[in-house]
Design brief:
Blueprint (H helix, E strand, L loop, with lengths): L9 H11 L1 E4 H9 L3 E4 L5 H9 L3 H10 L2 E3 L2 H10 L2 E7 L2 E6 L4
Parallel strand pairs: 2-5
Antiparallel strand pairs: 1-4, 2-3, 4-5
Amino acid sequence: MADTPAELNDAELQQQLNLETGRLGWPELQRHFARGVVIILSRDMDLVVVASRFAQDDRIRVEQWLDQGNIRRASDADAQHWSRTEPAFWAIVVAPWVLVQEITVQ
């Protein structure tokens, strides 16, 4: 059984979360969007670092990111856009949330 976030130091937690990060398409993400649990990260945010703050229930840091617009809940407009463009995402589950970053093709 995996250690809980409280039992891991920050580096260990980030290493564990990195292993749990995966690639999802919009069809796989739709059911999570329907539940209202998808959080979008801006491109300059580190998915694993943000996930570790969620896992450690760092409400102050998460609220700062929300206030700054660095993270936000996915909206109906996002879902409509994703339905049209069918992007891929880097994603990680930090229950109950699904944190995502759209993968951009350079």
